[in-house]
Structures are given as C-alpha cells and as structure tokens.
Amino acid sequence: MSKHAKLVYLHILIAFVIFLALKLSIPAANGLTPAGVNVIAVFIPILYLWLSVGTDWVSWLALGLLIMTGIATPDEIYADTLGAPLIITVIAMMSFSKVLADTGVIDTLVKWMMTREIVRNRPYVFICMMLTACAIVSAFVSIAAVSLIFLSMISAVCSQIGYKKGDPFYTALCLGVFWVTNAFNGGSPFGHAMPVVMMSTASAAGSPISYTQWLAVGIPYAVITTIACMAIICLIWRPEASKFRDYDLDAARKEVKPLTKQGIITVVVFAAVVVYWVLPEVAANLIPETVMSFINSWGTTIPLIFSMSLLCVLHVDGKPVTTFPVMTSTATVSMLVFIGAVTVLGNIVSNADSGISECLNNILSPVTANMSPFMLVLVVALGTIVLTNFISNTVCMLLFYSLSMPLMSAMGEPVLGLTVVIVAMASFASLVPSAAVTAPFFFGPEHITIRNSFKWNVLAIALAWVIGTFITYPLSNLLL
C-alpha cells in the first residue's frame, strides 16, 4: 500500500472518530434539535476531509451523508445541489470566461493597455497599466483564466526587457496579478463562483443579495484594494527596473490585434446579460411594469441559457462563435459537485429546523452581548483573512458565515455587508502555495517563493483587511 493511500485512510478514520465523538457528546439543547446534532456530526468531519483529502469524492459523499441526517429529503438535497439555478449560473460564468479568452478579447484588451504611450520609459506606470488591465478583465473572467494569461504575458515581456524569473521586477508583476485577481474574485459575482455561491446561501437563509447590491459594495472594495496593491509595489517596494528602457514599445504595439468578429459578438452578448441583471434595479422606473413582471418571473438564469445557446448558433465565416463542449469544458463535474455540496451544507446549517443558529446565539451571546456589530465584523474579517491563507477559501467562507450570521442577526443588524466582507476576505489568499486554487500557478522555484514575497504578502493582506473592515463594511450600510 502506498504512503498516500495510508494517509487517506488515516484521515478517513480521523473523520469517522470526529463524527462519533460529536454524535455521542453533543446534546440536543439550547435550541439545537436532534436533526441539528446530526448536521453538526456530518458538517465538521466533511470540513476536515475537504481540508485533508480533497473536495471531489468527499463532496459527492457529503450529499449522501446529509440525506442521512434527516434534516431534508433526498429530493430537496438533490434540488439544492446539481438541480439548483446556482449550477447553471456557474456553468455559464465559466463558459463566458472560456469564450472571452478563446476569441482573443482578453489578449487584445491587455496588450492595448500595455502599449499606451504613457508607459514609455516609465516602468512603474507600466506596472499600474498591467494591473489596471488585470482588474478590468478580472471583474468578468474567472481568476484561473486571468492568471494563466497574465503570467504568460509577464514571462514574455520580462524576457524581452532582460529580467528573468525570480528577479524583483518579475516577482512584483506576478504578485500584483495574484493580489488583483484575488480582490475581484470576492468583489465581483461575474465569472467567480464564491460570490455566486454565497448569494445562493444568503438567499436560502432569508437574506437575499442581488447582483446590483453585490457590485455596489464588492467592486469599490476590489478597486480600492487594487490601488493599494499598486501603491505597495510602486511607492513602497519599488523593485529595480533600470532595464525597462529596453522594452520596445513600438514593436509591442504592432502585436496588438483588433477584436475579431467572434470577440465582438461575445462582448455584446455578455454585456446584454449584465444589463439584464443590473438595469431593473438601477432604472426600475424606466421599465414598463409588464416587462418587469416578466423579468422577475424569469430570474437570473434565463439570459444565461439563451446567451450560451446564441453563441453556439451564431456563425462567423462558416463556423460558430463557439461550441457547447468547448465553452463548458472548464466547468468540471468535480467543481460543480463541490459547489453544490457547499451550498446545500450552508443552507442546512442555517436551516431553522436544525436549531444550529439558535444554539450558537444562545451559547455565544454572553460573549458577544457587549460587542458592537462593528467589533464583530472586525474579528470575523480578521479571522477569515488569516485562516483562508492556509485552508480552502470556499470552506473558510462557509465556516465564518455559519458562525457569524446568527450573531449579527441577533444584534438586529443587516447581514448583507458582513456577507460581502466575508467573501472578500476569504478570497484574498496569497501567502503560501496552498492558499488558493491559483496559488500553484504563481509559486515555484523560478516564480514567487514564500521567502521573496512574504513581507509584501503580509502587507497586502493587512491592507485588504483594513479596506474590508473600515471602508467596505461601513459603505455597505450606507448603500444596502
């Protein structure tokens, strides 16, 4: 038997022991129901296995275990996972990211911004332009796609300038992209699973958040964090950049290709979906009441279904803009099962029939009785951003949401702002190679290492926490 197999078996045994300990030791008291005890006995071992073994088969197993808790019927569990509108939304978001990359939209936008005259002989302006382009793309495209595209461009540009992998200039560009993609991974619900998952979970808990509301709070957070990251690199770090004079701006400008017809079609279709989501909330008085009733009955998934179909139907030069197998190739079964399991687990934990929220409030209320809502946000945001740098971002998000929402609700305070802050903090993970899904793209002997990035990472993480706590949360109370 291999060492890996033995380790997996050990983790499974530990999870089973945790299950028995929780099942036999937790009383159905303080508002906690017998079904709630079963949920906790499954919830904690699943979290452990997600962190120690993986998320694919563990998520699949979690669905069966949740049915056995008795908190919901099999049909309800299945409907809240792969049968939920969330899954269609995630598939569509990943699909648009794929098509935007395949049709050259991202490549054209980034290269155009990187070749403006303002960057000539100005290395730090060049860095800011690259991170600005990264921010614009990251607002709509999955961070995995953005990271791979920008790392490829950074490698090509630095090679032309004369910097090799591991040099401070190269490291600064990589870290900047890492930070910006993380900021928009939590700040924008377009193309990113974590905000969409949390929007679904919050809706099931009775605190729905619309796309417009999330954008109103999340985008300012991401933009301010991006500016802070630029300041770290260009004003504090200031990596050696004397070789930048060798960057041939004119030659690079010749490589900028105009948008293809396929790219233009993709941008127009995607923009139409965004307008469909946002316009009814920002200009409701301008839309006829009959149209609004149709929009409200259709929900958010209808435009995604039609837009994906449209991209497969529209032909350019005898070929479709994309095909369904190609555009959905990034939405893997493993990812969808994990997202479904996280969502249904979050819904069940906050389910009133389990009594978990009531129990947490009864137990923790003596501690939080004299705590202000802002202090709770401060502590939760700090715990989230620290822990997320060492464990799964999605698991960390779910954990702190489950712990903090009952407390915030008991204080009589709105939970929407804290929800956005939790996702933003859970998304900003860049400290170690296991910090995020995209971390392996950046970390490596010839790329970023813990040693050459640690102090800058700590500074960026601290600033992200300050922005989330002292700017984003107060802003959410004003806007939401």
Key attributes of the depicted protein:
480 residues; mainly alpha; 2 domains; 2 strands
Task: Tell me about this structure.
By secondary structure, the protein is an all-alpha fold. The chain has two domains: 3-84 and 339-479, no CATH class; 86-198 and 212-327, no CATH class. Helices cover 72% and strands 1% of the residues. It has helices spanning 3-25, 34-52, 56-68, 74-79, 85-102, 105-114, 123-138, 143-161, 168-187, 193-204, 211-237, 249-254, 261-282, 289-298, 301-313, 324-327, 333-349, 356-368, 373-387, 393-410, 416-427, 439-442, 450-479, and strands at residues 315-316, 319-320. It has a two-stranded antiparallel ribbon with strand order 1-2. Strand 1 and strand 2 (319-320) form a beta hairpin. Helix 5 packs antiparallel against helix 13 and helix 19 runs antiparallel to helix 23 (450-479). It is globular, with a radius of gyration of 23 Å.
Kindly summarize this structure in a few lines.
The chain has 480 residues and is mainly α. 72% of the residues lie in helices and 1% in strands.
Query: Uncertain regions: pLDDT < 50 for 5+ in a row?
Result: none
Radius of gyration: 23 Å
Structural class estimated from helices and strands? mainly alpha
Strand coverage percent: under 5%
Number of helical segments?
Answer: 23
Shape: globular
Secondary-structure element sequence?
A: HHHHHHHHHHHHHHHEEHHHHHHHH
Question: Biggest sheet: strands, sense, closure?
Answer: 2 strands, antiparallel
Question: How many strand elements?
Answer: 2
Q: State the share of residues found in helices, binned by percent.
A: over 70%
User: Structurally, how many domains make up the residues?
Assistant: 2
Distance between the termini: 56 Å
List the strand order in the largest sheet.
1-2
Overall mean confidence score, pLDDT: 90
